[in-house]
Amino acid sequence: MIGLMEDYSSWDYLPVDHIRTPAFNSGVVSEASNGNKEFSVSLDAAVPDDILERIFTLLPIASMIRATAVCKRWYSIIYSSRFLWTHMLPQRPWYFMFTSNETAAGYAFDPILRKWYDLELPYIDKSSCFVSSSCGLVCFMDNDNRNTISVSNPITKNSKRLLEPPGETLPDYSTIAIKVDRLSHKYSITVAKSKQVPEDFVRWYFSVYKYDSWSGTWVTSASEVFIGWRGGDDSVICNGVLYCLIHSTGVLGNVNPRHGVIMYDLVGESSGTSLMQTSIPVPCSLTCGRLVNLKEKLVLVGGIAKHNRPDIIKGIGIWELHEKQWHEWHR
Questions:
Q1: CA 147, CA 258: separation in Å to the nearest integer?
Q2: Helix (H) or strand (E) holding 45
Q3: Nearest Cα to 190, choosing from 156, 145, 227, 238?
Q4: Which residues contact 107 (CB under 8 A, 6 or more apart)?
Q5: Which residues belong to the signal peptide in this entry (predicted)?
C-alpha cells in the first residue's frame, strides 16, 4: 500500500465544492489573415447542442459536473439530456471511506482524476449503516433500527428520505440493494429482513420488500419461513435478479457449507417458487462472503476457511456465477 501511495504522489485533496468550480473560459483569438486583428470567439455559440452532448459523454463524471458551472446552457444540457446520461463511457467506480464511527463524514477518491474529495452525506447521522450503490446513486439504511432509508447523489448533493419499509421494525438481520435503470433513470430498492421465530431455534422468518421510485411505494415481494437457515447482511441485484447471502444456523447439522445464495426474480416476481428451492451452495467452506455486481454478473468474494477450523481464514477466493455454477477466478 505504501508503494502504491508513493506512485500517486500527484494526488490532490479537494473539497467536493471544487467539482463545481468553472473549468473553461472564452478567450481572445488572433487571426493572422485579418491584419492581426483580435476578436472574441465563444465556444458556447459555435458548437451545437448535439455535439456538446457527445463531448460531455467522454468526460469523467467529476469533470462533467464541474462543467455545469460554466454557463446556463451547459448546465441545462448536462442535467436535462437523456442521451448524455445513457451514452456515457463506463466510469471507474469511486472509492469511499468513512473517517469516523460517530459522524457520516468521509472522503471519496476519483481514480480517473486521482483526486480525493471531502463528501457530506445528508440524512445520515453516523457511519454505522448498510450501504448499496448503483450508477452514482448511494442508498443508506441505518444500522440501529433498519427502517431509516435514504437515497443520495453525493456529487450533486441531492438526497431523499424514503418511507419506512413494511415488515419487522427490529429484524435480527437485514440487507439492502439498489439498482438504477440507465434508460429511464428510475431506481428500485430491495430490503431483505430475517427474524427468528419466537422460542424456536430452527425456524426463521425471511421477507423481501421492494421500493420503486416511479410509484414511491413499498410492496412485499416474498415471504417465507426458513428451516435451519437465516438471512444475512449482504445482497445485490444483477440483471433484474436479487441475490441474497444466507447462513446455516447449524441446529440441524447442516454446518457445511455454512453459506448459500438464494435468488429472487424481481421482474417475473418468482410467483409460487420457494426461495430455498433457488438456493445455490457456495463453492467451498467460507468464513465470510460478499456479493458483487460486475457488469450484471454475480461475483462472490469470500474468505476460504481452514479444514476443520471453519472460523479461521486461510485465503481469499473470487468466483463468478454462471448458470447456477460457480467458476473460480482466483484464490
A1: 28
A2: helix 43-46
A3: 238
A4: 13, 96, 97, 99, 116, 117, 118, 119
A5: none
Q: Which residue, chain included where needed, has cell 438526497?
A: 159
Q: Where are the domains of the chain?
A: 1-23+44-120, 125-281
C-alpha span between 145 and 161 (Å, rounded): 15
Whether CATH 1.10.3470 fits 125-281: no
C-alpha cell at 42: 465563444
Amino acid at 146: R
| Partner residues linked to 195 by β-bridges | 205
Q: How far is CA 11 from CA 109, 113, 148, 279, 321, in A?
A: 9, 8, 35, 45, 36
Which phi-psi region, left, alpha or beta, contains residue 101 (left: φ > 0; alpha: ψ -120 to 50)? alpha
Grid cell 454462471 in the structure block, residue: 322
Binned average pLDDT, 10 residues per bin, the chain of 331 residues:
34 48 45 52 70 82 80 82 62 71 71 75 69 86 83 79 88 93 87 93 93 93 92 93 92 71 85 85 90 91 83 89 90 79
Contact 288, 315 (CB under 8 A): no
Nearest to 225 by CA among 268, 261, 258, 193: 193
